[in-house]
Design brief:
globular, Rossmann fold, 2 domains, alpha/beta, 14 helices, 288 residues, 7 strands, 11% strand
């Protein structure tokens, strides 16, 4: 009963922040996989084959796609060609995006700002399909061309249309984790004043864990941690250990116990959309 009530209170707080235009969305790979994009395993196998590595090496727990990409670069692999391979193999299927309930819900929730670590253009395709304008931001120059009232889609790890922008190799990620680029500065400013919802991420992703920790650290050092806007992460399944750590970092976990992660995400977004509609209707209802 307590968990259900706590979840309702958190969902209401998030919905109210969305209504007030004070919520931003941070989207990970789990959302793109809803429309059939391959996992990182496909990219890792491609690089291994190009390098003539034994694929058995990829099953070792200390070998990640970032490390393989770094080795690929060290061996003289053409990173631009790698970016083009990604663009060709991770291209958006317009029909799948058009049928995606998750993407339709994301568009309908009307977040003013969406950050994504995904290279693909599924979010952009969803906005186009549903007739909603957006501005894609990949670099500092794009920040100067944003129009008011248009959803900003900020490609935090680069964009397939610009292979040079992709954060792929291990050193790329280290540079990103320094949090000193213009997009990092922009995100810190946004996150300090707004509620953030993270979806599509695994908590084994050290990049996102460091980002969440840095947000907590910034507020903790400020002396005004109690004034921090609430932030949330959606997880398809509960995990007591992860949730305790995230709570310490000021992140509330919203979850759905549906077995299939894709269905769980749709259930969550649908419930959030319903809560937004309910609160918005109550706000607009005239007093008797």
């Amino acid at each position: 009963m307590g968990d259900s009530w706590e979840r309702h209170e958190s969902l209401s707080a998030l919905a109210q922040a969305i209504i007030d235009r004070r919520a931003i969305l941070f989207v990970g790979a789990g959302v793109s996989m809803q429309v059939g994009l391959p996992s990182w395993q496909a990219l890792t196998e491609y690089m291994a084959d190009e390098l003539e590595l034994d694929r058995d090496l990829l099953s070792k727990p200390d070998v990640h796609y970032q490390t393989v990409a770094e080795y690929y670069r060290l061996r003289g692999g053409n990173m631009d060609l790698l970016g083009h391979w990604l663009r060709d193999n991770w291209s958006t299927c317009q029909e799948q995006v058009a049928r995606s309930a998750a993407h339709e819900l994301l568009v309908s929730l009307d977040f003013p700002i969406i950050y994504t670590t995904n290279y693909d253009r599924n979010l952009e395709a969803a906005f186009e399909h549903h007739g909603k304008p957006y501005a894609k931001i990949t670099n500092a120059r794009d920040l100067t061309e944003v129009s008011e009232g248009v959803t900003q889609i900020i490609k935090f790890h680069g964009d397939l249309d610009d292979p040079a922008s992709l954060v792929l190799a291990e050193s790329d990620h280290f540079e990103r984790l320094s949090f000193e680029t213009p997009l990092d500065v922009r995100f810190r400013a946004d996150a300090l004043g707004k509620t953030v919802l993270f979806i599509g991420y695994s908590m084994s992703d050290m990049n996102i864990r460091l980002l969440l920790y840095r947000l907590w650290q910034t507020w903790h050092r400020s002396g005004f941690a109690e004034d921090r806007p609430p932030s949330f992460i959606f997880m398809p399944r509960g995990n007591e250990v992860q949730e305790a750590v995230l709570r310490h970092w000021g992140i509330s976990v919203l979850r759905d116990e549906t077995e299939e992660p894709g269905r769980a995400l749709i259930n969550f977004l649908s419930g959030l959309a319903s809560e937004v509609a309910l609160l918005d209707a109550a706000r607009k209802k005239p007093f008797n």
